[in-house]
Amino acid sequence: MDVGADLRLGPVLRKTTPTTATVWVETGAPAEVAVTAGGVRARSRTFTVHGHHYALCELQGLAPGSSTPYTVEVDGAQVWPDPASEHPPSLVRTPPEGREAPVRLAFGSCRTPIDHSPGAVRRYGSDMLRAYGRRLARLRRDAGAGDGADGRGPDGDGAAAAEEPAVLLLIGDQVYADELQPGMKEFLARRRSQAAGDGGGSGTGAGPDARARAEARPPADEVVFFDEYAELYRRSWSDPDVRWLLSTVPTLMLFDDHDVRDDWNTSGAWRAEMDASPWWRHRIVSGLGSYWVYQHLGNLSAEERAEDPLYGEVLKASSGEGAAAGNDAAEALDAAALGWHEEPQSRVWSHEHRLGPARLLMVDTRAGRDVADERRRDILGAPGAAWLDERVTGDADHLLIASTLPFLLPKAVHRLEAWDEALASGAWGERLRGPAEKLRRALDLEHWSAFGRSFGSVSRALVELASGTRGNPPATALFLSGDVHFSYLARARPSRRAAREGAPGGGTRIAQLVSSPLCNRLPTKFRWAARLSAAAPTAWAGWIMARTAGVRPPLLEWGLDEGPWFDNAIAELALDGRRAEVVWLRGRDGASGDLQIDEEGPHEV
C-alpha cells in the first residue's frame, strides 16, 4: 500500500479524554476521512487552506482506560496502518476516569529534523523523538501489544501500558522556520523558481501570487509562505518512527519563537523592525495560520473547536458555503492570523487538561506578549495572565505548568535578564536603553526573568498556592519547560522576602523541570557559558548588578539541584498519588544507528 498517495501526513493522535480521542490528518486531495477504533467510528470532510487539505476526526463513546487499535480511511480506502510497516499497531489509549490512577507523561522541545547521516548526528546529536518512538515500539513488541482483541496484549492485561506515557508534550520549536536543513533550502529554491515561472500556479494554491512573492523578497534560507510551512511540517513529522509515535501517543503542543522566528516578540522595538520588512507580513500570517492548523486545533476538544468561530468559518468556506466560500479557506485564515499579530491579546492560546491526579496548564509565552510599553511588559499579556492566575489553584494533587520558556533559570542568567530589562526601561538613564535592547537580542534575554512584573505575579500566586490561600495545596507545582538546549532540575521554596510579607509557603513542592533539546544539541563552545551561569560566583555577580538597577529580590529561592546536562533528551514525569518522579532519557553523545538511550534518574521532585 502506498500510504503517501492519499495520506500526506499523519495520522496524529491528539487530545484524549476517558471517552474521546481526536485524530488529525492531512490528505493529498479533498476527501472524506474515517477513523475506526473497535466499534467506534468517526467521519469528517477535509477543509482546505492554501491548497492543502486537513481533517480532524473525533472518536466518541470510547471505554475509559482502554487501548484499541485503529484504522484510517480516505474516501473508503484504508490508508493506515501500512501493512508493510514493522511498527506495532497504532492504538487509541484513553485515560481511566478519576484521579486515583497513576499517570506518566513525556515532554521535550527544540527539534530539528535531520537525515540521520553521520555529519548531521555529529552536529545535532541523535533525534530523541525518533529514538523514543523506537523505544516505545520495542516495549509494545516485547509485551505483545496489539495481539489481544483490545490491543493490550495476548493476555489482555495491558502489560506495556504502565510504562507508556499517557500524553506527549511538545513544548516549543516543533519546527525551525528560520534554521533550515539543506533539503528544505533546496525545496524553497525550486518552489520559488517554479512560482515565478508559472505566474503563481502549479501548486501555489490560494497563496500569494508570483508578483506578491517576488515583491516580498523572502530570505532564501527561511520559510515565508503557507505552502513552505506545510512542507516544513511534513518533513518534521514524516520520519517513520516519529510518524508512528505521533499516531499512537496523545500529543499536546505549544509554539515558541522558532516556530515563527528567532526572538519572536522579544520587544516592541523588535516588532517594529520586523513589521517594516517586506516579507514579514507573509511570514507572520503563514506562521500563525499554520500553527493553528497543524498544532493548535488538536489541543482542543470537539466542543472547544465548535466554539471557535474561525473553525466554523473555515469549514463553511471549504464546503462552498458562507461569505468566504470558494472551497479554500485561505482568505479567512489569513485575515484571522493577521489580526492575531496586530492585536496579540485578542486570543489566548493557552489550554488546560486533566491528567489523573494532575491538572495541566499549557501556557503560551510568545504570541500573547504585551511589549508595547517597555516599562509595563507582560510575557502573557493581560488576558493570558488572567487565564493563568484563575487556574493556579489547589484542586489537584499536582499542578503542572507547561511553559516553553523556563520559569526558573540558573541564578546568574535570571539576574542578568532582570538587570537588562531594568536598563532597557531606563533604570540607569535614557542613553543605556538602546544598548540594553541590543544586549537583549544578542544574548536572547527574553525569558520570564526578563518580564519582571509577570515573574513577580506568578511567583506570588505560587507562594499563595503553597500557603493554602488558593485552596487545598497540591503536593507539587511543577514547571515543564525547554528552549535553553540543556536540561536540569531546580527545586524552589518561598524566599525570606515572602516570609516577611506574610506568605511563608507550605507543603507544596515547587520545581522547574527542563528537557531540551530533542534534536539540536548545543555546540561545545557554548556549553561553558551554561555551566558558568550555574556557578555561585557568577550568581553573586548577577545579584550585585540586579540590585544596583533597582531589581527587587524574588519571592522564590531556588538552585539547580540536578544538571545541567547537554545531551539531546526527552523527560518522563511519573505521578502516583502525591508522589512525583522524573527521569531524563538522554541520547548517547554522538550516537547513531541504534540510537542508544541512557537514563538520568529517577529523581524525586
Which class do the helix and strand fractions yield?
alpha+beta
Strand order of the largest sheet: 13-14-15-16-18-17-19
Tally of contiguous helical segments: 18
> Uncertain spans, ≥5 residues at pLDDT below 50?
145-159, 200-208, 589-593
User: How large a portion of the residues is in β-strands, by DSSP E?
Assistant: 15-25%
Molecular shape? globular
Instruction: Count every beta strand, where a strand is a DSSP E run of 2 or more residues.
Output: 22
Could you please describe the fold and organization of this structure?
- This protein is an alpha+beta fold.
- The chain has a domain at about 350-605.
- About 35% of the residues lie in helices and about 25% in strands.
- The protein has 18 helices and 22 strands.
- The strands form 4 sheets. It has a 7-stranded mixed sheet.
- Strand 13 (about 350-355) and strand 14 (about 360-365) form a beta hairpin.
- Helix 2 crosses helix 6.
- The chain is globular, with a radius of gyration of 24 Å.
- It starts with 6 loop residues before the first strand and ends with a strand.
- The model is unreliable at about 145-160, about 200-210 and about 590-595 (pLDDT under 50).
- InterPro entries: DUF7800, Metallo-depent_PP-like, PhoD-like_MPP, PhoD-like_sf.
- This is Alkaline phosphatase D family protein.
- Pfam families: DUF7800 (PF25077), PhoD (PF09423).
